[in-house]
Design brief:
Blueprint (H helix, E strand, L loop, with lengths): L6 H12 L9 H16 L23 H32 L6 H17 L16 H9 L3 H14 L31 E13 L4 E11 L3 E12 L2 E13 L4 E12 L4 E12 L3 E9 L5 E9 L1 E2 L4 E12 L11 E13 L5 E12 L1 H9 L5 E12 L1
Antiparallel strand pairs: 1-2, 1-13, 2-3, 3-4, 4-5, 5-6, 6-7, 7-8, 8-10, 9-10, 10-11, 11-12, 12-13
Helix pairs in contact: 1-2, 2-3, 4-6, 5-6
Length: about 400
Amino acid sequence: MKRQPSLRNRQAQRDAQRYRPVANGWLSPIVALLCMLGAPLSDANAKPATPANNSAVPAEMSAGDSPSRSTSAAHVHRDNAQSRGARIDEARGDHQNHGPHAMHPTRMSHASGAEHHGAASGVVPTAPITDIAQGQSDEDAASTVGAADPQRAGDMRAALAANRILPGNAPPAAFADPSTGVEFPGADMHDMSPRSRFLADRLEYVQGRRPEGAWDVEAYIGGDLDRLVLRSEGEANRDGSDGRIELLYSRAISAFWNTELGVRHDFGSGPNRQWLAVGVAGTAPYWIETQLTAYAGPAGRTALHAMVEHDARLTQRLILTPRLEAMAYGRADPARERGAGLSDLSAAVRLRYDIDKRFAPYIGFEMVSRFGQTARWARQAGERAIDPRLVVGVRFWF
């Protein structure tokens, strides 16, 4: 049986025949020897022989080039193209975690979006090349690949153009999936859709110097930023009632604080009073609910109201709420028995049980103190300047 020549010998024979015009006369043995020496150098880096690996040397090579140099260059070019393709295919699965773009979430989202849009448009997206220099952009990588593989570089540029926000292209719609473009209504930071709520924070029976009822309710309508608030607080007994009602516009100025502007109306014992109200309300550090409101009325009357309270959860349903509230006036109002300066101070603690998040009964203790001229007028009316009270009530909202 005739022995087949080895791969190296066949390669040397083809190279010798290809460059026969150069190897004339006495140069023929030298050319053959150079071809045999060049083949091992190029085969050291080449993959096993396949029909694709036996491609010819580029035809534009000049006749004066060295055969060994030309053959080695052809093998290196062919090996680089194949190994680059293998590395690109291998990088498709793990470049999100190991590639140079793994530290850039925005670039990662664009890369994932390229697979979706590329498949829809008929362009096969190419994952960013992981063996390019660190920090090199995808556009620069496409230019680098274009020097050796124009077809793959063209696919990369097509995928980038289809999926990247290029100059002149409109940005994607806000609050939408970047890969599909589907918008999600209501996913914005501030919910502008109007809604309403009614809260009876205190609706209670008070047992003190004399029995009476008390209320502290609030209702609002609006969104996260702007609201219209209706608030009322007061007491009622057999002799009548004494309370106030406020209508306020509330505007959020931060995540935990609102400004309030509106009007207040006092009713009950004595003549009615009207006030212009301005203040702030919100949550202080350590989850302390805070209200601070200043009032101005006709005839130079002024007032200041402050309230702080905190819900301390003893269990998931048992909540202890200490509360401190004060009222001060700029000038005395004998018709309503309100003295100048600090008029009333109320310190209370209530223990409620949340049967449901919307409904909770409670019991508590409250100490009401009156100061200055207000205390003297209270004693003249048969009341105590310092009045301890037991309270029982409910808290609910809807």
